[in-house]
Each structure stands twice: as structure tokens, then as C-alpha cells.
Predict the structure.
Amino acid sequence: MLLGIISDKNHINKYLIMKKRIYISLPMGGYEDTVMDRFEKASREVLHKLGDVEIIAPYDIDMFDKREICNTLSENHDWAWYMGRDLEIILRCDAIFMCRGYLNSQGCRVELAVAREMSLEIFFADDAQNDII
């Protein structure tokens, strides 16, 4: 949990407790039609396990490309562009939550490696070791 200092209208400093930011890492490429359902399931599990946190996910980040939501191979941006954006966001988070199928997703494995290197807390979904079918 982060502490920040804010000033009100009277210039009095107050402490603001900021919610822990949890990045949800879930396979996207090849599973575009189920991304939203899997993201919602992961969000519920995060909130159940970790309480009142701010949820950050690639789905939200990648919506920047409105023409092809979640298509990591769109004609506008390649996989590396999306990974760069996701990694930038991970560096601003406190923890990562690994979802089902992460072991078979190169992007998820890269996200996990960065999280480990940056000493973020790491959480796993109950079914994280399973493949997406």
C-alpha cells in the first residue's frame, strides 16, 4: 500500500492511502473472443483473495487500439509494441496476478519475469497451472 501526500484548499498536507495496484496477466493472443470473460473472472478472484485493490489489466491497456481490441497482431501495432506498453504499466504496479494458461503464453512469462526482477508480489489464480481450453 502506498502513502501519498495531498493538499486541500487550505494547503494542509494530508496522507492519502492508495490502493495496491494489481496487474492481471492473462493470455490474449489466440483467445481474443474470451478475454473479457477471463478478465472478469480473474478480477473477481483478485478481489476475493486480496480485498480492496486497484485492478490493472492488459485488456484495459490494449483498448487504445479501438479498431482491433485485443488483437496483438493488428496491422497498426505488433506484439512488441503491446508488450512494451504492458511492461511500462507493470512497473507502476505493486503486484501481479497470473491467470490460467500463463505457462503457455510468452507474453505472460515475460510479464512474470519482469515482476520477479522488480520484486513485485506475485499471486496465482487457483487454476493458473491449467491450459486454456
Notes: The chain is about 35% helix and 20% strand.
